[in-house]
Amino acid sequence: MANFSKIESMVKNENNFQVLAEMAPQIIWSATFDGKMKYFNQFWYEFTGLSEAESLGLNWRNYVHPEDSNVLNNVWQSGINIKKPFHLELRLLDKNNDYKWFLCKAIPNKTGNEEVSEWIGTLTDIQEQKQILGLVKEKAEEFEILADNIKHHVWVESADGEPEYFNKTFFDYTGLNLAKISTDRLKIFHPDELEEIKEAWYASKKAKSNFEYETRIKSKSGDYRWFKIRAVPLKDKDGNVLKWIGTNTDINDNKIFEKQKDDFLNVASHELKTPLTSIKGYVQLISNEFEGMDKETLKLLVDNTAKSVEKLNKLIEDMLDISRIETGHLNEFEMELFSVDEFLKELIVQLQESQNGRIIYESNSDIYINGNKNRLKQVFQNLLSNAVKYSPPDTDISVNVQKKNNYVSISILDHGNGISNENMDRIFERFYRTDSNTLSGLGLGLFISREIVKLHKGQIWVESEVGKGSVFHVELPIANT
Ligand code: ADP
Question: Which of 104, 249, 271, 287 sits at a 20 to 30 Å CA gap from 416?
Answer without folding.
Answer: 271
